[in-house]
């Protein structure tokens, strides 16, 4: 069994504020990365001396003499820390701080005050400055305060990421597989995990691409950093860009607030791009750019940002032929195809079907031997997802905690070994277009309501949707067509079933239903 289980939860820090953060920052290792500093000071000598000192210490300094210039720079460029002089002609340090906050600029601000203006410095901190210093100050102190401020900003961002991780985290998944082909996959995971290079996971629907992506992340040095996922197939095309890159307020109809993209949320961690073959062609150059040098812009923003994100992409399409057909950019393909990993079909994993049955059938349930024989003989075109769906359907339909041949769908019975003398039970059927879905309403009713009460519409819908999905071998596009609904609606339904189900296998079944999320496995 390949384990991929780490869940780190951080208790919310009730006591916040600059002092507390500074204390935390002092306890932390300081980053030796150069500080990107904006220095705003109208006294020429003092400004030049500070700027030269910080530059000699290896930091990147932009020094200006007034607030108007500073605000323009903040809007177009990233700075870790800004030092604002309190008393400047035109726009004071406090006004500048207000402007920075109104524009939601992500920056740590230190206020520089003259002697005797401590009260206003305290007021500035209440307004969101992270620290203050009184002039004249030693240059060593200036660098130290800037380092503390930068660390505070990093902690704050990390905290935001962790909150997102906690609020959207899901149960850890186990990777089941002892077959030779899965051992080869496990070896490959061990090899690719420690690097920071992109990985492209290819495999048919339901073979476990997302599970493998999470295993890579869990075995990588980024295991404690965010693991953010986006499913390009589950989002309307026009939303993929704003999910990935974020947007400025007012940049398009409906952009009512500023929103960071998943690249920013994943900064320092891993971004799993599922169904990358569905990525809109027009968006591919933007993705290529961020893969090349980490640079990106939110929709509607001129500000360039740099992110450090490890990319794991997955697809069930043959990307080489998508490139030939002109649906996928060749340069992007080469960028993401640095470490390719091909997942085997379930029928190519000797002995794993048995192991998966034992894992997914609830512990107190029995599985008749002929059922095992039928399940292991079947070819599973929809792979593990289809197997889980069939098991789940069977546990809804079965009596007395025992799965018999009666609870298996016809295609499994016909495709597998039926066993001597078995005649499948005739099932009342619901007609879906030209397709007989075979939903046994009476069985669902008794399974859902042992006391004989009427099942809810949701119970029936869930069983029906899972049944059609299983019949279509886990292929969501085909299942959606069969059900007469849009594929995105099917994703939403699977997501709803997952939320309403306490059963882990249900959660797993609909795992790709979420279009995008942040999680720590
Ligand atoms: N090795 C495994 N052990 C146990 N469960 C697995 C394994 N691989 C996949 N699964 C389960 O199978 C289901 C499908 O897995 P996953 O979503 O990772 O497949 P996928 O290849 O990404 O599918 P799709 O292409 O449709 O997005 C999930 O419920 C997952 O938990």
From TrEMBL:
Domain Response regulatory per the UniProt entry, residue ranges: 36-150
Protein's GO biological process: phosphorelay signal transduction system; regulation of DNA-templated transcription
GO molecular function: ATP binding; sequence-specific DNA binding
InterPro entries found in the cross-reference section: AAA+_ATPase, AAA_lid_NorR, CheY-like_superfamily, Homeodomain-like_sf, HTH_Fis, P-loop_NTPase, Sig_transdc_resp-reg_receiver, Sigma_54_int
Source organism per UniProt: Rubripirellula reticaptiva
Keyword Transcription: yes
Range of residues in the leader sequence: none
Region annotation Disordered: where it falls in the sequence: 496-521
Protein name as it appears in the record: Nitrogen regulation protein NR(I)
Biased composition, class Low complexity, residue ranges: 500-521
Gene that encodes the chain: glnG_2
Modified residues (4-aspartylphosphate): 85
Keyword annotations: ATP-binding, DNA-binding, Nucleotide-binding, Phosphoprotein, Transcription, Transcription regulation
Record domain Sigma-54 factor interaction: where: 175-396
Pfam (any one): AAA_lid_14
């Amino acid at each position: 069994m390949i384990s991929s289980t780490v869940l780190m939860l951080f208790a919310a820090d009730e006591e916040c504020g600059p002092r507390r953060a500074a204390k935390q920052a002092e306890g932390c290792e300081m980053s030796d990365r150069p500080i990107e500093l904006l220095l705003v000071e109208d006294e020429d000598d003092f400004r030049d001396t500070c700027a030269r000192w910080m530059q000699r210490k290896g930091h990147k300094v932009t020094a200006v003499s007034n607030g108007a210039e500073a605000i323009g720079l903040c809007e177009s460029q990233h700075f870790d820390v800004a030092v604002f002089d309190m008393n400047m002609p035109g726009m004071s340090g406090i006004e500048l701080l207000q402007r920075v906050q109104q524009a939601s600029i992500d920056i740590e601000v230190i206020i520089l005050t003259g002697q005797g203006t401590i009260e206003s410095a305290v007021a500035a901190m209440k307004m969101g400055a992270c620290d203050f210093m009184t002039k004249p100050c030693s240059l060593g102190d200036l660098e130290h305060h800037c380092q503390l401020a930068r660390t505070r900003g990093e902690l704050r961002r990390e905290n935001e990421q962790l909150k997102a991780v906690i609020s959207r985290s899901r149960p850890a998944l186990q990777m089941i597989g002892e077959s030779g082909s899965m051992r080869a996959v496990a070896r490959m995971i061990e090899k690719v995990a420690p690097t920071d290079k992109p990985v492209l996971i290819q495999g048919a629907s339901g073979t476990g691409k997302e599970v493998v992506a999470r295993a890579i992340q869990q075995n990588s040095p980024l295991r404690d950093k965010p693991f953010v996922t986006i499913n390009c197939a589950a989002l309307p095309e026009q939303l993929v860009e704003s999910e990935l890159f974020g947007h400025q307020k007012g940049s398009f109809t409906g952009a009512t607030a500023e929103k960071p993209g998943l690249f920013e949320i994943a900064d320092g961690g891993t971004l799993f791009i599922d169904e990358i073959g569905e990525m809109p062609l027009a968006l591919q150059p933007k993705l290529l750019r961020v893969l090349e040098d980490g640079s990106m812009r939110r929709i509607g923003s001129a500000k360039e940002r740099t992110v450090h994100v490890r990319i794991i992409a997955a697809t069930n399409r043959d990307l080489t032929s998508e490139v030939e057909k002109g649906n996928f950019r060749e340069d992007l393909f080469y960028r993401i195809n640095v470490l390719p990993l091909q997942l085997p079909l379930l029928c190519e994993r000797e002995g794993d079907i048995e192991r998966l049955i034992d894992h997914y059938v609830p512990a107190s349930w029995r599985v008749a031997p002929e059922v095992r024989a039928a399940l292991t003989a079947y070819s599973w075109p929809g792979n593990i997802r289809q197997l889980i769906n069939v098991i789940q359907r069977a546990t809804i339909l079965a009596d007395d905690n025992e799965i018999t041949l009666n609870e298996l769908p016809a295609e499994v019975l016909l495709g597998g070994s039926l066993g001597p003398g078995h005649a499948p039970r005739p099932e009342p059927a619901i007609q879906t277009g030209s397709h007989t879905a075979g939903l046994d309403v009476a069985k669902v009713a008794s399974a859902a309501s042992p006391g004989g009460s009427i099942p809810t519409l949701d119970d029936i819908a869930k069983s029906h949707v899972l049944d059609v999905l299983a019949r279509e071998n886990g292929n969501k596009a085909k299942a959606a067509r069969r059900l007469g609904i849009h594929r995105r609606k099917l994703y939403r339904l699977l997501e709803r079933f997952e939320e309403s189900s306490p059963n882990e296998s249900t959660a797993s079944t609909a795992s790709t239903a979420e279009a995008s999320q942040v999680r720590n496995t």
